[in-house]
Design goal:
The protein is of the alpha+beta class. It contains 3 helices and 6 strands, in the order αβββαβββα.
Amino acid sequence: MRGESGISKLIATCLLSLSAGAAIVYVCTTEPGPPPRSQLARASGRVEWFERSRHDLHFGLSGSPRRFSYPAWGGGWDAVHAALSREGANVEVGFDASDSSAPPWPWRHYIAVRELSADGRPVRTYEQIVAGRQRDLSVGVYLGFAFLAGGAICAAQAGRRILRRRRYGGGLPPPWLQR
């Protein structure tokens, strides 16, 4: 029957949107956040290597086996890039030593930087980086609610079409009522 696939697609879109919205809101509202500043581990040294990816600045420090990552949501991207690419700069980072967000590949494990200073001067403070993360999470919550609203609208449209189909005996309504 004509119109069946339209309703099925609408219901599938509704379920997908509601699921995505619920997942986004859940992730953004339940993230534990960074540990207090006093519990951050420290590492310092000269920048041995540095690479820029799409969303992060990855680097390694002399004397530390860890691979660090400065996330884009931390803000101050240009200042951090300049500090890391400056030759001979002594960089100190604060990071969460219990960070368990490692991917399954050990060569891709980067530890997120929560504080960064170069040559004794702060480049990005703990407060600035945490505020950037909170800003990102609040945008995610709004995005999740937008998906939930879209899913609710799709559900209302699907319900309206189902009721209309029942009202007209399984057939289509007159052409002047179709939208």
